[in-house]
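tool=predict chain=A
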Amino acid sequence: MRYILMMHAPRATGDWQTFQWSPDDFKAHIGFMHDLNEALTSSGELAGAEGLAPPAEARIVRAGRDGMPAVTDGPFPESKEFLAGYWVVEVDRAERAYEIAATASAAPGPGGTPLNIPIEVRQVMSAPPQDG
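tool=predict ok
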């Protein structure tokens, strides 16, 4: 079964709070993420993972009347959290996805203190078969 693990970060100022950390704290955090990805790759559980640009760079796109993209700033300022990145993991049971999410949640922050970042876990569904 595939699961997507979505890391949510607080809104703050439109930039990731990590940009305000000391270089050593930032390096430890990124090192933790690299090590986690390496461990998941070695175990055959990692199907994909990406970090995302900060919310200040996000845009909302809708189809305009003429079918052309209508692009606006976004996400909306009332959002309390933003998607910081995600992993797609291939595991045999939901509990394993939860274990991986808990590990990711404990990524170190300033001074090495675990951040306990919220990680949303959802099973990735397959499309129904096409008739025809």
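Residues 5 and 121 are 5 Å apart (CA to CA). The first helix runs from residue 23 to 42.
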